Structures are given as C-alpha cells and as structure tokens.
Amino acid sequence: MAGMTDPVFDRLTELLGEPDRQAAHGSWDAAETYLGVRLPTGYKTFVDRWGAGTLDDFLSVVGPVDGTAEEARGLWGAWYGSQPGQTRNHDIDPFPYHPEPGGLIGWGVDKYGGAWFFLAQGPDPDRWPIAVVSDTGQWYATRGTFPEFLLRCLERRDYPLFLDLTWPRPQPHYLPYRAD
C-alpha cells in the first residue's frame, strides 16, 4: 500500500471484507506499456488486493488478470470513442480520450453501460481526477485517489447522482473474477 493512506484501505476492508485470495492478479507492466503511462497507485493497489471484479453486481472494475499485451489491448483498447485527431462533439464528450493529452483512461463500467475513467491530466497519475459518464451521456467528475473515491461512493458521500438509487448497497459486496 505504498503511497496510500492505510485508513482508506482499512475502511474499504471493513466494508468489502478481506480480499479473496483466489482473485486473479496480473502484472501491470503490459497495461502501462500499452497505455504509455503509469496508472494510479491506489487503483493498482485495490486491484492487486481485491482483484478485478464487480461491486454489488453494479460496477465492474477492470484490471489485468494474465498481464499480457493482448489482454491490455483487450481491456484498454476498446474504451475510446474517438481516435487521436478526430473531431469530437464537446457536448457529448467534453473530455478527450487517451492517448490525447489529458485524455480519459477507463477503469470500470456499470451495469447500465456507464463508463468510469481516470482523467489523465498532468504527470502524476495519483492526482488524476475521476470522471463518470452515464448511459445517457451525463458527466460527473471529482478529485481524489481511486480508493478515496470508491470509499466516498460506498459511504454515499460523493458519487454521481444519476446512478441507480439502489447503489451502493448498505452492505456492499465485491466479487473478484477468478483465476483460471
């Protein structure tokens, strides 16, 4: 948990339970090579502890399982609605998509088709804002590390108000994808 505050992960453990030791854990090297940037420490720490998986059958958190370049292309290659240099409709997509400077890098999807991103603004990935777009095109952005944001969502202190009102559950459950 280097670089992260222990109380945040302690609280996440209280809410989600101890990580499932059977969760698949992959290497981040291929993902970061594919993307050309380091990913936020708190995000990697969360996925390394709990594994890629789903929260309350609502939010799927992606992350490497086998750690290959092919997997990285599969996970992160499909996120982007526009290509570098392509004109985008700023009313629909107010942020550029990675690899454009300051572009969105996906880390999750919800059951309604909303997408959850890091907004890669600046050289320090641990300071990147988080942005969420609903299936109807509503955007929400906030600051803070990945685990801080996830904790604020679970405690209903900071999360997109356009989300399903039944999420998060009072007693959230995280189900990791299993290693084969």
Blueprint of the fold:
Elements: H1 6-16, H2 29-35, H3 41-50, E1 53-55, E2 59-61, H4 69-76, E3 104-110, E4 115-119, E5 130-133, E6 139-142, H5 146-154, E7 174-176
Antiparallel strand pairs: 1-2, 1-7, 2-3, 3-4, 4-5, 5-6
Overview of the structural elements:
This protein has 180 residues and is of the alpha+beta class. A hairpin with a 5-residue loop joins β5 (130-133) and β6 (139-142). Strands 6-5-4-3-2-1-7 form a seven-stranded antiparallel beta sheet, with no helix packed on it. The two termini are 26 Å apart. It has one domain. The protein contains five helices and seven strands, in the order αααββαββββαβ. The radius of gyration is 16 Å and the shape is globular. This is Knr4/Smi1-like domain-containing protein. InterPro entries: Knr4/Smi1-like_sf. It comes from Kitasatospora griseola (Streptomyces griseolosporeus).
